[in-house]
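Page 42, continued from yesterday. The earlier attempt failed because a stray header line got pasted into the input along with the sequence. Redoing it now with the clean sequence only.
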Amino acid sequence: MTAEPSQTPRPGTLAPTVPDPFDQELCELVLDTAPRLFAVVQVCGEDPANADGWVVAWGLVDRDGPTHVIGIDGRARMTLASPERALRHFTGRSGTTARLVWLAQPGTAGLDRPEAA
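This time it went through. Structure tokens are written below.
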């Protein structure tokens, strides 16, 4: 005699949930309006084999708004017209240049996920 599969789901399994349309709209709104995040990196040395670099500041920029930059020590805080203007504040010592390094734009957003922050 063969047993027939049960018509009820196994205990402990969850049925896939369909995202709430409003929650989906909120996530799309966040992705559409998210600022871009970048680091200001100082680089010492012109030869890539011997160069050294370190992060001196973090910044974020809105699509149509100002750029906000804060030094990693928390003392330098700036609101600038563009990310490139931050380079002027971190370049100057002989042999040291500054560069922008952009973080990739996130492609997903979710609600109630603290690890996403």
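Notes: The radius of gyration is 24 Å.
Reminder to self: strip header lines before submitting.
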